[in-house]
Amino acid sequence: MTASTDHPMSGLWQPTQLQAMYYGPSSVKEHLLSHLPSDSSKVFIITGSSLATKTSLISQVESLLGSKHHAGTFANIGQHAPIAQLDEAVESVLKDNSIDTLISIGGGSPIDSAKVISHRSHEKQGRYLYHITIPTTLSAAECTLIGGYTNEKGTKVSIAHPRLIPQAILYDSSFAKETPQKLWLSTGIRALDHAVELMYYPTASEAPTKQLCLTAISQLFEYLPKCKKEPENEDYITKLQLASFTSLFGLGLNLKGPLGLSHTLGYALGSPYKIPHGMTSCLTLPSVVRLKADNPEAAEQLARILPFLDQQRSGHDQKDAIRVGDAIDELLKTLGLDATLKDFNVKEDQIAKISKMATNSEQGELFDKVVSLIRSKL
Q: Which of 105, 145, 326, 351 has the greatest CB tally within 10 Å of its CB?
C-alpha cells in the first residue's frame, strides 16, 4: 500500500467496486428494482428485529420485491453482529442456490453481516453475492471493505476484501426517519470519527480522501444540531447521509489496518462492554484528538479542520489541534451525547485490559497515555 506524504505531496487513490449511490426521499421505491443484477435475481434481506417489528420498512421492501425476487428475510441481527445470529443467517442464505443478491437494511451490524455472508458464500460456493444496502444510521459501514462481527468470546473480529464493498447504496430519508434520535446522532459522531481520523491516516490520499473528509466534518458540525432540533426535516437527514458517505467513501481501497486510536479504542469498548459504536466515538474522539496533537504530523492535519468549523487558525498546529478536540466536546454537549464510561458499567480495574486491546501492548508511552485517557472518561 502506497503511503501518502505531505512534504512533498504524493500518494495514490484506488476506487472501489461501488456502482451507484442514490439519495433522497423515495430512493428505495424508485431505484431498488432497477439496480438488481438481473431480471431474475433472487434477494435475501438482512436486518435487525427492531426495524422488522417496530416499523413497516422491511415489509415495504418485501412487497416491492414481490414473490418474483424475494427469497427470504433474516431479521435477527443484533448489535455488533453476534456470531450465533450470523451463523443462522449464513445457513439460511447458503441453503438456497438461487439467491444471488443481499439487501442489508439498518446500521453497521446488518451491513457488516451481509458482507460476512458474502464472504462465507465465496468460501463455500466460490461466489460473492451482489450487495445492495439501505442504511438507516450514519455509521458509514456501507463505504468500507471490512465486515465485522463478534465471536464467541465477545471479541470483535474483522474480515476484509475489495469484493465485500456493496455495489449500490440507497440513502432514503423516509427510511432514516425511523431511526431513534440518539442512535442517529451518535452514529453521526461515528462518521465524524472516520473523517477526523482519516486526516492523519498514513494511506489517506489528499484527493479525494482528505478534501472530502474536511467537507464531511463541516457538514456534520452544521447539520447534526439542526437535525436534533428538527428531526423530521428530510433535507437535513439527507445532508447528513451524504456527509456520512463523504466521511469514509473517499478512502477507496487505501485501507491498511484500523483507521486510528479512536477506532481501536472503540473496538476495545464496543463488543466487550456492549457499547454502541456511535457512543464509543462520543467517548473517545475528543480526547484522542487532543492526544494526537502531541504528534507534529498529526497536529498539522488536524489543524486544517478549524476553518471548516468557522474558526481561524492561529499558526500553532498543536494548539489548533487541541481546539478541534474541544470543539468536538462542545458539539457532543449540544447534541446531549456527552457521556462517561461509568454510564456503561466500565470499572477502574478494567482500564489496563482495555488499553492493552487498544494499543496491542502492555507498557510504553502510548499505553500510558491511553490509560490516562480512559481513566479521564470514568
A: 105
How many whole angstroms separate alpha carbon 144 and alpha carbon 190? 14
C-alpha–C-alpha distance, residues 133 and 90, integer Å: 17
C-alpha cell belonging to residue 225: 444540531
User: In 10 A of CB 343, how many CB atoms?
Assistant: 13
Answer for the pair 211, 63: CB distance below 8 angstroms, yes or no: no
Query: What are the angstrom distances between the C-alpha of 282 and each of 45, 65, 75, 378?
Result: 30, 38, 28, 13
**Bridge partners of residue 106, in order along the sequence:** 135
The span from the CA of 188 to the CA of 193, in Å, is 9
Q: For the chain, where are the E strands, in sequence order?
A: 5-6, 9-10, 20-23, 42-46, 70-74, 99-106, 130-135, 146-150, 156-160, 168-171
Q: Report how far residue 316's alpha carbon sits from residue 94's, in angstroms, rounded to the nearest whole number.
A: 57
Q: Which tens digits make up the pLDDT trace of 338-353?
A: 999 999 999 999 999 9
Phi, psi at residue 75, to the nearest 5°?
-120, 45
Q: Express each pLDDT in 180-206 by its tens digit.
A: 999 999 999 999 999 999 999 999 999
Each residue of 304-342: pLDDT tens digit? Answer: 999 999 999 999 999 999 999 999 999 999 999 999 999
pTM recorded for the entire structure: 0.95
